[in-house]
Amino acid sequence: GAYTVTLTAADQFGAQSNDTARVTITADTITITKAIYSTAKKQIIVEATTSKPGEAILTVVNFGKMTYNARSKLYRFTAKGVAYPATVTVTSSYGGLATAAVIQGK
Known about the structure:
The protein has no helices and 11 strands. The chain has strands at residues 2-10, 16-24, 30-38, 43-50, 58-60, 64-65, 67-69, 74-80, 87-92, 97-101, 103-105. Strands 7-8-4-3-11 form a 5-stranded mixed β-sheet, with no helix packed on it. Strands 6-5-9-10 form a 4-stranded antiparallel β-sheet, with no helix packed on it. The protein is elongated.
């Protein structure tokens, strides 16, 4: 979204100066590349990419924060002992959001 930001600076004598700027923040694009669930291990694995790799913090909603691998530019989340979710949603600190169906396997 677009925001108006105002900065006010003052010195020890009380003199003040203001400046205003318009700032536009664009949400990143998230792609969920893997969302699988192992019924035997009760384990979920989610992998995703973002248009702001290394900058964005990605989170699997209701599960937790994803770990970023700089070499592969891939975010990954793994958890054991969880119930099967039909879908997962990944959100970003830059406002991006993606939802994908979870593939169930052994």
